[in-house]
Specification:
Layout (H helix, E strand, L loop, with lengths): L3 E4 L3 H13 L3 E7 L6 H5 L2 E6 L10 H11 L3 E3 L9 H10 L2 E2 L4 H8 L1 H10 L7 E2 L6 H11 L3 E5 L8 E4 L2 H19 L4 E5 L5 E9 L5 E13 L2 E7 L6 H17 L4 E9 L5 E7 L6 H8 L3 H9 L16 E8 L1 E2 L5 E2 L2 E2 L2 E3 L4 E2 L5 E6 L6 E2 L6 E9 L2 H14 L1 E3 L5 H9 L1 H5 L6 H5 L11 H23 L15 E6 L2 E10 L2 E6 L2 E7 L7 E6 L2 E10 L2 E6 L2 E8 L1 H7 L13 E3 L4 E6 L6 E2 L4 E7 L2 E6 L4 E6 L6 E2 L4 E5 L1
Parallel strand pairs: 1-2, 1-4, 2-3, 4-5
Antiparallel strand pairs: 6-9, 7-8, 7-9, 10-11, 10-13, 11-12, 12-15, 13-14, 15-23, 16-17, 18-22, 19-24, 20-21, 21-23, 25-26, 25-32, 26-27, 27-28, 28-29, 29-30, 30-31, 31-32, 33-40, 34-36, 34-39, 35-38, 36-37, 38-40
Helix pairs in contact: 4-5, 5-6, 7-8, 12-13
């Protein structure tokens, strides 16, 4: 077995690899850029080597710098994680030439399967059903339009060397094909150093289901069942689960055996993932093979008990797989929610900054018998950089059934505290309560269909709203009692806490009466009572309560005359007032936000790549105005209505903050 390995990556996946290596008694080496000098993976590793400036194309994807770090430290093997150089054939070959083991498949398999165009041709030759498309290289945008017309809209424009949603665009017409080709090409060059593009038919209403394979150097190739990855936004997976709620045993077996056959055809060893799209009749089509560890591998580990990273290291060291296909049973259900540094209230645009508070839920077994796992690469006080993926953490839960795993995830998300940046916790929490998700009736179009106008926060069910109202009334009473005990007050001015209150949230008023004892409070509504118990005290940002014996977790903040409550994807301003205060509040005028309709504001911290208009130009609805790059993704800002450009205040190359003005309209 190896004595020392280098992890050629960063963030949560570098930390994940280090954990398995540590468990195996293997020393680890981290590499880091200027932006990651104080990163968690650097702290966790036994050694760390600086490899260059913040941009990935000057550090993490420069093969010579990784090789030099290997030489400096004497590492015997390199684990590439995912992204960066993980599917780079030249990197694997360079390590081989250096006499260093690549913890991944052979370079020939990477070349065959890592390139999406080549892999499609091999799959077709192997008799695997594939999606119609154009497998040749495309030179320019006009050729992309011509091919798209031949294939038939809608089409998917994809980077040949891509992954993780980078370099992918869906086009429904010629204009989008032209625009998408250039953006995909730019993103591919920036993220992978390879700007080759291909086009395939976009199958509407598909499910994205993938098979995890493991193969050793002794001829054993196995599949660890499937993962459902259909909850996606802009081709980026958001929520994954294992197994799929859609597959039956026969389809699962057929997909697994086909995935293994494909892996054997290219002499594959190590861990890999064969991705399929599956239609409503359970017909499946080969999409691509990721010749690396997959981001969502933890859900497979939770239902099989297999440490995939450990097996990758063992296979690279020449060890056989310690189990047979018949040993790999499905145990329970696992769900993964990806926590991204992106603001769902601003169209999921990237958010950067310092994590002023980062408190994930406690990992391990839960009170109800489930499991919580959190794979992360950040810490409280750390900074989210604009140079890399917006991934903060992968929160996973396991339970015996899908319904129980969803409930474990709901509680874990409500417990997860993140402050200082925009993040998608409210959104994934809302998905956990969505009827379609709960039923398992999902597709890759789920987010686009259910949130066509973006996400503005969840609207809670009346039953849950009532429980939160009771909780807030009880918490407000605790805060009021504390305020009566302030020392140094004037004599003969004793303050009495009343029993009658009016709770306002989500536009609904609840008139309540509170009766309390030393064990808790009973909150009386007009049509019944609710029992509330908790050890929460004012100032704590997290309240764990029992409402009629059922757990409820709330994130709590103070606002005038009430509380800011966040739970289940909703961000609520809860006003708790006396009946007289509530009466007067109904007479107050509502303050309106300022009108910014005449300005194009930068929706995220980012770099202005292109200004597409000039001053004095008339623009029409949907016309591109500017392109902003953040976290390796290009975002095209378009006109919301017809108008004339009065003034342009930003230039290409400028780095802007959120809501900084790009241009003004007449």
């Amino acid at each position: 077995m190896f004595k020392k390995i280098l992890v050629a990556n960063r963030g949560e996946i570098a930390c994940r690899v280090i954990k398995s290596a540590r468990k195996m008694g293997i020393a680890t080496v981290a590499v880091y850029s200027d932006a990651d000098r104080n990163a968690l993976h650097v702290r966790m590793a036994d050694e760390a080597v600086h490899i260059g400036p913040a941009p990935a194309n000057q550090s993490y994807i420069v093969i010579d710098k990784i090789i030099e770090a290997v030489r400096q430290t004497g590492a015997e093997a390199v684990h590439p994680g995912y992204g960066f150089l993980s599917e780079n054939r030249k990197f694997a070959a360079a390590l081989e030439a250096e006499g260093v083991v690549f913890i991944g498949p052979p370079s020939a398999a990477i070349e065959a399967m890592g390139d999406k165009i080549t892999s499609k041709k091999i799959a077709q030759e192997a008799g695997v059903s594939t999606v119609p498309g154009y497998m040749g290289l495309i030179e320019d945008a006009e050729e992309a339009v011509k091919i798209s017309q031949q294939v038939g809209y809608p089409v998917m424009i994809k980077a040949s060397a891509g992954g993780g949603g980078k370099g992918m665009r869906i086009a429904w017409n010629d204009a989008e094909a032209r625009e998408g080709f250039q953006s995909s090409k730019n993103e591919a060059a920036s993220s992978f150093g390879d700007d080759r593009i291909f086009i395939e038919k976009f199958v509407t209403q598909p499910r994205h289901i993938e098979i995890q394979v493991l193969a050793d150097k002794h001829g054993n190739t196995l599949y660890l069942h499937e993962r459902e990855c259909s909850i996606q936004r802009r081709n980026q997976k958001v929520i994954e689960e294992a197994p799929s709620p859609f597959l039956d045993a026969d389809t699962r077996k057929a997909m697994g055996e086909q995935a293994c056959a494909l892996a054997r055809a290219v002499g594959y060893t190590s861990a890999g993932t064969v991705e399929f799209i599956v239609d409503g009749a359970r017909n499946f089509y080969f999409l691509e093979m990721n010749t690396r560890l997959q981001v969502e591998h933890p859900v497979t580990e939770l239902i099989t008990g297999v440490d995939i990273v450990e097996q990758m290291i063992r296979v690279a060291a020449g060890k056989p797989l310690p189990f047979k296909q018949s040993d790999l049973k499905i145990n329970g259900w696992a769900i993964e929610s990806r926590l991204y540094a992106e603001d769902p209230y601003r169209g999921f645009l990237p958010s950067i900054g310092r994590l002023t508070r980062y408190r994930p839920p406690v990992e391990g077994k839960t009170m109800s018998g489930g499991i919580v796992r959190n794979d992360t690469g950040v810490y409280e006080g750390g900074e989210i950089s604009m140079f890399y993926d917006p991934m903060i953490a992968k929160l996973c839960t396991w339970a015996p059934t899908r319904g129980e795993a969803i409930e474990e995830m709901r509680l874990a998300l409500d417990t997860f505290e993140v402050e200082g940046i925009g993040h998608n916790l409210p959104f994934v929490a809302a998905v956990m309560d969505h009827p379609r998700f709960v039923e398992g009736n999902i597709s890759t179009a789920f987010i686009a269909e259910e949130y066509p106008d973006g996400f503005a926060g969840a609207t809670l069910a009346p039953e849950l709203t009532r429980r939160i109202a009771a909780a807030c009334a009880a918490m407000n009473r605790v805060a009021e009692i504390r305020r009566t005990r302030i020392s140094g007050t004037l004599g003969n001015h004793e303050r009495r806490v009343g029993e009658d209150w009016v709770v306002l949230l989500q536009g609904v008023e609840y008139a309540v009466r509170i009766s309390a004892d030393h064990k808790g409070s009973t909150v009386h509504f007009a049509d019944g009572a609710v029992r509330v118990t908790s050890d929460w005290v004012p100032g704590q940002p997290l309240a764990r309560l029992m409402i009629d014996g059922t757990p409820l977790v709330l994130k709590v903040g103070k606002i005038p005359s009430g509380l800011r409550i966040r739970a289940r994807g909703a961000d609520l301003k809860v006003q708790v007032r006396t009946p007289r205060q509530a009466e007067l509040a109904r007479l107050m005028l509502e303050k309106l936000p300022p009108d910014t309709s005449r300005f194009l504001l930068c929706p995220m911290p980012g770099l202005i790549v292109k200004i597409s208009v000039v001053e004095g130009q008339e623009v029409h609805e949907g016309q591109p105005l500017a392109t902003v790059e953040a976290m390796k993704m290009e975002n095209i800002l378009k006109a919301e209505r017809k108008g004339v450009v009065k003034k342009i205040t930003a230039k290409p190359g400028a780095s802007l903050k959120v809501d900084e003005v790009i241009m003004e309209f007449e």
